[in-house]
Amino acid sequence: MKLLADKDERFKGLFVKVSIFVLIAIVGVSLNLLFSGIKKGFFTPKSAIYFVAGTGQDIKVGMPVKLSGFKIGSVSKLELDNKAQAQVEMMVENRYLTLLKADAMVSLKKEGVIGDSILEATRGSEDKGPLKVGAIIEFERGGGLDQIAVDLRDRLYPALDEINKLLKDANDPKGDVRQTLSNLRHLSEEVRGTRERINHLLEQVDEGILNDVRPALRSARHSAEAAQVIVEKDIPSLIKKVDASLDNVRQISETLKTTVDNSAPQLSGFIGETRGLVSDTRNVMDSASTSWPLKNMMQPPEQGLVRMDSHD
Amino acid sequence: MISRLCSLQRKVNLPLLFLPVFFLAACGSPPLRQPRAMEQANKADQAAHRALHDGDLMRARELFRQAILMQQSLDNLPASAEAAINLSYVSHKLGDDGAALLLLDNILRQDNALIPSELRTSAAFRKGIILADNGKVAEAELALQLADQSCNNQCVYTAGINNLRARLALDKGDFGTALSTAKTVINAGAEKQEMANSQRIAAAAESALNHHEAALLYYNAALELDKELALSARIYEDLTGIAKVLAKLGRKPEAEEFARRADAVILASRELTIKSEKKATP
Q1: Four-point Cα dihedral B56, B61, B66, B72, nearest 10
Q2: Residues of chain B contacting A308 with CB distance shorter than 8 Å
Q3: Distance CA B136, CA B76 (A)
């Protein structure tokens, strides 16, 4: 028995109508969820691939894994193992798994220099077999601005140390450079003394050759011997030291060249990104300045003919 | 304050409070954007104006050149002519009168139908000013004639054209014509800059006609206007003019005082110019 009698014609079959309406809504929501799921790849078959990272910094669950710019999977699990290393599980879509070889690897990079972190997979060698499900692959960090800074620091510090050493050596009174200069000065004084003595000998030659020529010649011989000792003993070591210094300078130059060569592409990318960022910021500022409420606060930019009078 | 807000929350439905914000946000939608190339050309023009406003004439010149090229690449002849007139102004300020006159001649040579009459008037008027500054009175008169024809007493340059005519008469030594033309502008009324210019020309003409007391009155009126406009170079001219007239009137201590003030104005102005040039683009 019905509690209330449906006297109004419009309420006849109300339960059926409401049921159909609710059913259509449920079907609609389900279809929506289904299509979203398909689009998001919830129903795409995937396989687990693992890698071990020294630290889990910058790696997050849900982080995309990309190959040649295409998303092929995502990080599904992140755990700390008994060696305090991060064990990372990635779920890679099966259709893309065939593209990866046994020696494939992933590297942590940023999309752009200041963008989000992603895992970039590299295909591996063509001669290797396909990557197996559950395989553990290599991992490396790289890319971002902080990494460039670390790279630069690692490469520049040894070079700067070498330069520092060289300068210290040059300033040290007992160092190679100062010693070399001191020896050269000494040699020069010796040679000057010898020349003076020989001059004296020539002046005195008329007055008493027999009395004076012998000691003078003895002195000349002594000086010549001293010079010979210096030439034979000190000059080779001096040349060796100069050679060593030149080698150091060459090494520094090579280190710096390598550093610049390696950093140049990254720096040019960084400059390009910065330029893009500035351009985007300018666009945002321009758009904001022409929108309410900023446009009412800002002075309109000058345009048209420059104001000029008959006396300008 | 917080208690007041809480009581307000109790009385009024909170989402209703956000309604005006939504309406205001709708008002804030950005205007429709122009094509990229046109936007860039306008931006170059705006940047050039900004540089000129900041006293960076070199940068302004470069940016106006860019604006001309951009407008030419879009076949926008009026806009490129406008940028060329502005560039001629900057070139004149930088002392490159040859380049300034070349730009203006290019505009004046073009077909009348392609360039709006206002721009033709402006180009001819500015050519007249540059030639007058260079002491080429006859050529300046021809340019002035051209400006007068384009304007036909119905443009914004009417007062300026009359002042230029008075100035040329003054340069030729025709002080009577200079005075009467300047007085025409004063009586008809004009914006402050042209009014000050006509007062200064009238003062110079009166002084040349040995009407020193009248000249003093005109110079003082011009000085007052130029101070309102904060134009150092013209304040200097007014002060110098007053000093000369006072000297002619035999009021030497006053004349010396005005001359000293004039020197102080020009020295400070030059120092500021040098400093701003140092700050500007190398």
Answers
A1: 140
A2: 89, 126, 129
A3: 33
Q: How far apart are CA B170 and CA B164, in angstroms?
A: 10
What would you report as the CA-atom Rg of chain B, rounded to the nearest whole angstrom?
A: 26
Number of domains in chain A: 2
Of the residues A127, A143, A159, which one is the last residue of a structural domain?
A143
CB-based contact A311 B163, cutoff 8 Å = yes
d(CA A73, CA A119): 10
Q: Is B26 on the interface with A (CB under 8 A)?
A: no
In a domain? residue A83: yes
Residues A136 and A206 reside in one and the same domain: no
Say yes or no: A301 contacts chain B, CB-CB below 8 A: yes
Taking only residues 168 to 227 of chain B, the set having a beta carbon closer than 8 angstroms to any beta carbon of chain A reads: 193-194, 197, 200
Q: Is residue A105 included in any domain, yes or no?
A: yes
Q: Are residues A123 and A159 in the same domain?
A: no
Are A154 and A269 found together in one domain?
Answer: yes
B164, two tokens: 């230029």
H/E segment holding residue A53: strand A46-53
Residue A189 and residue A168 share a domain: yes
Structural domain of residue A118, as residue ranges?
46-143
Beta bridge partners of A70: A67
> Model's pTM, two decimal places?
0.51
Question: Of A291, A303, A308, which has the smallest distance from its Cβ to B89's Cβ?
Answer: A308
In this complex, which of B52, B122, B164 lies closest to A310 when CB atoms are compared? B164
pLDDT tens string, chain A, 312 residues long: the values are 455 556 677 777 888 889 999 999 999 999 999 998 888 777 888 899 999 988 888 888 889 999 988 889 999 998 888 888 889 999 998 888 888 888 899 988 877 656 788 888 988 888 888 888 889 999 987 756 666 676 777 778 778 888 877 777 777 777 777 777 777 777 777 777 776 777 776 666 555 555 656 666 667 667 667 766 766 676 667 777 777 777 777 777 777 777 767 766 666 667 767 777 777 777 777 777 777 777 777 777 778 888 888 887
Q: Is B127 in CB contact (< 8 Å) with chain A?
A: no
Which chain A residues have a beta carbon less than 8 Å from that of B53?
Answer: 302
The answer on A252 and A154 residing in a single domain is yes
Contact B35, B70 (CB under 8 A): no
Q: For residues A267 and A162, what is the distance between their CA atoms, to the nearest angstrom? A: 24
Number of H helices and E strands in chain B, helices first, is 14, 0
Domain boundary among A143, A174, A189: A143
A155 shares a domain with A134: no
Is A2 within a domain? no
ipTM: 0.71
